Structure to design on (590 residues):
């Protein structure tokens, strides 16, 4: 095999060791390889090698209708499918200049925030798994996640691959029964979070492992284009829900949790706080849910005949604050039912760019938790 | 040990200080102990376990849940609702549906499928076929135990896909009733429109 570090290994004094983490490693969160150069236990260099899960989704979109591709966006970030739908649908609506009824917007926000809670719970659970706290925190988190996935299945038909958003609205209406379940969930989760925090936040072992590990300075974070909780943990106040106020996020009152040092612990804690804020938004959205259409009447016909949706020639870029960062879709239309080009700005891929900066100088055992704390999902990284 | 990083700009959730080193660990152990004990006698809603011993017992399906598509027939499997229009074949994102229209000796299309195959190994369970079907004939099933030893067994020909309307009623009662009502209304409308056709309609004249 050709080494990426040929010069360095030859130059080294015999102490430098080249290690391949992955692609079949449980802590890499998928098929992902970290080509690592270690000196003793200290990391000298890390080169992420990706592409093992490449499925050519951007090219696939060029042969599909806009509605047909929504199902594929689910498969990008498969932990939380709904924010992907959200971003793609926003881009398509921007392209065609379609307005969304208020009820649909509220339903979208409710679903997106539920998905954010699911994602952050999974991330915190897996991070603790990587730390060696095998399975207890993960299963506590998954217990609640299961209840949210039940809501998803009841409403959209699928637990994870929801395929729920449609151009101009959503696929099906939120009934009173669903609302009652969501309210029950919103009342249940704070109690769970308190318990979860008692389990973790003050835990001395967690603090010693995570604090001052994998520090990401705000300058590096901004320069490498990192977004999402990883950026906010470094103390940069940047949340697209606040800056863009897309959909109806301008109406809801919520705070943006910020970290101070930008270490693994801050990235963990920012996520816990974000779950609480998501619950805040969720409660407001459920209370404010107006009556009316759940899909724009003009575009409802496109569900039955997706080929009639022909956005005008042009381009559009829409971005949302997905739980992992800025997820944007850039669509170029040539007036046909298929996008001429559709590019996804995947936060997982771009957040990986600072991995080496965070890892160099750390111990090799910490590399996995640094990777776990920036929250990547390989379906989105490789697309 | 420094305090939690978060909270400077976020006053509400500042990390509490701990009385002594090891307190956090003890609190965590208390949580696990509490969960361990309560899981034996509490109800699922109050913090008990809600795991189900899967192969022996199953959770009830949600009505909206979807797995793989099937075809509905009304009275007998020889008369499916499907008219082989091929819209689902065209709109299927993964192209797993293959439809062939039946034709009589003269080559006249008979408006029913001669063959209707779905490759379950390709199907991605998106449910788009159900949404685009104008004849209410293809729906998503709840059946999920379809594991097979051979990939060929996942190729479903029409005979295996056809299921009765009563089966559809049994898995998705609300949707099936709504669809039955819609079909009935459409049939009545058609019936009402038929006698008006031969007679010249009074509001027709357009200059």
């Amino acid at each position: 095999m050709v080494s990426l570090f040929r010069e360095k290994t030859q130059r080294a004094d015999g102490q430098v060791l080249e290690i391949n983490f992955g692609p079949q490693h449980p802590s890499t969160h998928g098929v992902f390889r970290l080509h690592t150069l270690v000196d003793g236990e200290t990391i000298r260099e890390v080169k992420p090698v990706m592409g093992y899960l490449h499925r050519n989704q951007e090219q696939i979109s060029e042969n599909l209708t806009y509605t047909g591709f929504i199902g594929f966006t689910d498969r990008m970030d498969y932990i939380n499918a709904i924010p992907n739908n959200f971003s793609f649908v926003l881009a398509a609506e921007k392209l065609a200049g379609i307005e969304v009824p208020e009820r649909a917007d509220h339903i979208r926000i409710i679903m997106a925030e539920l998905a954010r809670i699911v994602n952050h719970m999974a991330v915190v659970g897996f991070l603790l798994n990587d730390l060696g706290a095998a399975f207890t925190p993960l299963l506590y988190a998954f217990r609640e996640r299961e209840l949210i996935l039940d809501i998803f299945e009841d409403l959209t038909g699928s637990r994870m691959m929801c395929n729920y958003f449609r151009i101009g609205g959503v696929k099906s209406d939120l009934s009173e029964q669903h609302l009652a379940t969501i309210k029950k969930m919103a009342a249940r989760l704070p109690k769970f979070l308190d318990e979860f925090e008692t389990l973790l936040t003050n835990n001395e072992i967690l603090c010693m492992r995570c604090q001052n590990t994998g520090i990401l300075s705000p300058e590096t974070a901004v320069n490498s284009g990192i977004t999402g909780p990883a950026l906010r943990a470094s103390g940069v106040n940047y949340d697209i829900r606040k800056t863009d106020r897309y959909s109806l996020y301008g109406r809801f009152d919520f705070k943006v949790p910020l970290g101070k040092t930008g270490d693994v612990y801050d990235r963990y804690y920012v996520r816990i706080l974000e779950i609480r804020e998501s619950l805040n938004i969720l409660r407001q959205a459920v209370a404010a849910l107006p009556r009316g259409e759940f899909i724009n009447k003009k575009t409802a016909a496109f569900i039955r005949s997706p080929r009639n949706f022909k956005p005008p020639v042009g381009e559009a870029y829409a971005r949302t604050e997905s739980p992992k960062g800025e997820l944007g879709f850039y669509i170029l239309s040539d007036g046909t039912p298929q996008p001429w080009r559709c590019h996804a700005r995947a936060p997982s891929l771009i957040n990986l760019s600072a991995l080496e900066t965070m890892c160099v100088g750390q111990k090799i055992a910490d590399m996995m938790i640094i990777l776990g704390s920036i929250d990547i999902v390989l379906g989105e990284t490789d697309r | 040990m420094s305090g939690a990083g978060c909270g400077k700009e976020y006053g509400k959730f500042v990390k509490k200080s701990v009385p002594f080193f090891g307190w956090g660990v003890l609190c965590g152990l208390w949580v696990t102990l509490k969960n361990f004990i309560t899981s034996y006698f509490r109800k699922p809603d109050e913090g008990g376990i809600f795991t189900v011993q899967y192969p022996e017992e199953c959770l009830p399906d949600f009505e909206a849940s979807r797995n793989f598509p099937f075809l509905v027939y009304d009275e007998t499997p020889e008369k499916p609702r499907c008219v082989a229009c091929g819209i689902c074949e065209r709109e299927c994102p993964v192209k797993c549906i293959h439809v062939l229209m039946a034709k009589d000796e003269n080559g006249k299309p008979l408006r029913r499928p001669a063959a209707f195959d779905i490759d379950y190994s390709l199907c991605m369970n998106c449910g788009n076929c159900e949404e685009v079907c104008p004849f209410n004939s293809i729906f998503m099933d709840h059946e999920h135990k379809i594991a097979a030893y051979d990939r060929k067994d996942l190729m479903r020909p029409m005979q295996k896909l056809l299921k009765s309307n009563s089966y559809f009623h049994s898995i998705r009662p609300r949707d099936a009733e709504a669809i039955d009502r819609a079909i009935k209304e459409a049939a009545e409308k058609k019936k009402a429109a038929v006698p008006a056709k031969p007679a010249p309609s009074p509001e027709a004249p357009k200059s």
Q: What stands out?
A: The two ends of chain A are 26 Å apart (CA to CA). Residues 41 and 365 of chain A are 8 Å apart (CA to CA). Chain A is about 50% helix and 15% strand.
